[in-house]
Amino acid sequence: MTDPSAASPWLSRQAYERLRTCLAVSPDREDPSDPSTVWSMPIVLNIPRQDPPPRHELLADAARAVVACCLSPDPAFADALTSWYGARIRKVARRARNVQWKRVQDVPGVTVGNARACVPSAVVDTHPEVRKLQISGTDLPPSPAPPAARPEVLIDAAFGMTVGKAAAQAGHASMLLAAQLSYEEVAAWAQDGYRLQVREVGRAEIAEARALPGAVCVRDAGFTEVAPGSVTAIALH
Predict the structure, then answer these.
(1) Rounded CA gap, 180 and 226, in Å?
(2) Domain assignment of residue 7, yes or no
(3) Which end of the chain has the smaller Cβ count within 10 Å, N or C?
(4) Strand ranges in the chain using DSSP code E only, listed in sequence order
(5) How far is it, in rounded angstroms, from Cα 122 to Cα 119?
(6) Distances (CA, A) of 218 to 124, 147, 176, 236
(7) Would you say residue 5 lies in a domain?
(8) Does 160 map to a domain?
(9) Backbone phi, then psi, for 227, in 5-degree steps?
(10) What SUPFAM superfamilies does the record tag this protein with (predicted)?
(11) Contact 140, 163 (CB under 8 A)
(12) Does position 183 have pLDDT exceeding 90, yes or no?
């Protein structure tokens, strides 16, 4: 499945209600002694050596791909998403280029621009084409932030997160935003291909955004790069 503006212009009520279950506080179902209980959504970022995409555009692609995957009407995605929502909602970003990027299009998921959100799975069952991709070692420099517009995701630039970590935060913000909105609001968003923008901003703007009505905060679990409980992103509608 490719750009959601063409592939899924309507919103499945079942997919919407399923996504809303991620807002519930559920017992931690992960068992360190059982790798099959540790689930993750792979996000593959296309970062060619020549002419890589601007950082803010890549982050927006990742955010749109994640929410489109979560709200896909494809029934083949349903069981995997349900299992993922019931565990810790991890996302792991990996880099691809050239033939790697072409091959990963065969992995179930949704592509928007230069990002593909793959259907979640137990980490031990990660698709072979995804598993071979590099997780760390590639970053993109900051790019000029676009003018403020809604919907948008604000990333706290003070953390200095890598592009992969920031992509995961942007994706988490977009799915939480959709889960907080009404069905009618999300249906209208789906008609527009889940368009949004991502801006990396300073701590002062993050603090201001947190105080706005309807602001959706992402608190990181602290597995990588930032301390547990850090507010890494804010989604605004």
Answers:
(1) 25
(2) no
(3) C
(4) 39-46, 90-96, 109-112, 115-118, 121-122, 152-156, 197-201, 216-219, 231-236
(5) 10
(6) 26, 22, 8, 12
(7) no
(8) yes
(9) -75, 150
(10) Peptidyl-tRNA hydrolase II (SSF102462)
(11) yes
(12) yes
